[in-house]
């Protein structure tokens, strides 16, 4: 059964259809990736699920509850969080303040418990907690971005290009952490340009092209599909 179910989603921006009849399923505890070239609608899909854009048609449900069109803060309370492309941290605020921004609805006691949890996953967050977020390296900023998104105890985490601009060693570290988050019971919907590492990490994959799902299947099978190899894996 799907934890997050996106069914026949249509999104129009500026009078243009960006997504058409997109259906994606993320099971409880699953890790699902969306592949596709730049400009095909991947980020639009995540922003619509997280409430930043309103769907024109179709449904989005979390644990059977319709969340399509909800305001972003209500989506967060429902159990879904997003770590956006480009990190989008508050650069002049310190790391601890950035974490607080991801947990405004929590009590002080719950906030402290979540800080303990995320610093256990990301020790660098504790080490840098009093530093301005903008002073951190790209990899450290990405860790803070993901940690912030986990502060609200989401059931589903949306990750938009977590490896963007990072060195290979840091990419490997980020994906180790993603696997740990998934192992802790958080389902993940991952948009990632690095198709090779995405397919190696995910259970299931969808290929998005010109706003439509054109291919889907178990990630291991798609990694061997000649169409995927030619388009995304350098075949």
How do you describe this structure in short?
This protein is α/β, with parallel strands linked by helices. 38% of the residues lie in helices and 27% in strands.
- The oligomerization state is single chain
Number of discrete helical segments: 10
Euclidean distance between termini CA atoms: 35 Å
Report the C-alpha radius of gyration, rounded: 17 Å
Q: What order do the helices and strands follow? A: EEEHEEHEHHHHEHEHEEHH
Low-confidence stretches: none
Strand content: 25-35%
Please bin the fraction of helical residues.
25-40%
Shape: globular
Strands side by side in the biggest sheet: 6-7-8-3-9-10
Derived structural class: alpha/beta
Number of extended strands: 10
Give the biggest beta sheet: 6 strands, mixed
Explain the overall architecture.
The chain is an alpha/beta fold and 235 residues long. The protein contains ten helices and ten strands. The protein has helices at 42-49, 72-78, 95-101, 108-121, 123-127, 138-150, 168-183, 195-201, 219-223, 226-232, and strands at 2-13, 16-27, 31-35, 57-62, 65-66, 80-83, 156-160, 187-191, 204-209, 212-218. The strands form two sheets. Strands 6-7-8-3-9-10 form a six-stranded mixed sheet, sandwiched between helices. It is globular and about 45 Å long. The chain starts with a strand and ends with a helix. The mean pLDDT is 89.
């Amino acid at each position: 059964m799907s934890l997050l179910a996106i069914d026949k989603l249509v999104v129009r921006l500026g009078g243009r259809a960006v997504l058409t009849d997109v259906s994606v399923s993320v099971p409880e505890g699953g890790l699902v990736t969306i592949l596709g070239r730049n400009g095909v609608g991947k980020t639009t899909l995540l922003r619509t699920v997280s409430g930043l854009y309103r769907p024109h048609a179709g449904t989005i449900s979390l644990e059977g509850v319709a969340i399509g069109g909800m305001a972003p803060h209500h989506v967060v309370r429902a159990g879904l969080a997003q770590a956006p492309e480009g990190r989008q941290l508050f650069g002049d605020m310190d790391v601890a303040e950035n974490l607080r921004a991801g947990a405004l609805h929590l009590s002080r006691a719950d906030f402290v418990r979540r800080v303990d949890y995320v610093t256990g996953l990301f020790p660098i967050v504790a080490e840098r907690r009093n530093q301005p977020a903008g002073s951190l390296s790209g990899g450290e900023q990405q860790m803070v971005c993901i940690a912030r998104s986990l502060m609200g105890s989401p059931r589903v985490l949306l990750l938009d290009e977590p490896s963007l601009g990072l060195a290979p060693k840091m990419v490997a570290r980020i994906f180790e952490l993603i696997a740990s988050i998934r192992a802790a019971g958080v389902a993940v919907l991952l948009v990632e340009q690095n198709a090779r590492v995405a397919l190696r990490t995910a259970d299931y994959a969808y290929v998005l092209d010109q706003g439509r799902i054109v291919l889907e299947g178990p990630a291991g099978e798609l990694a061997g599909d000649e169409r995927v190899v030619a388009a995304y894996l350098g075949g």
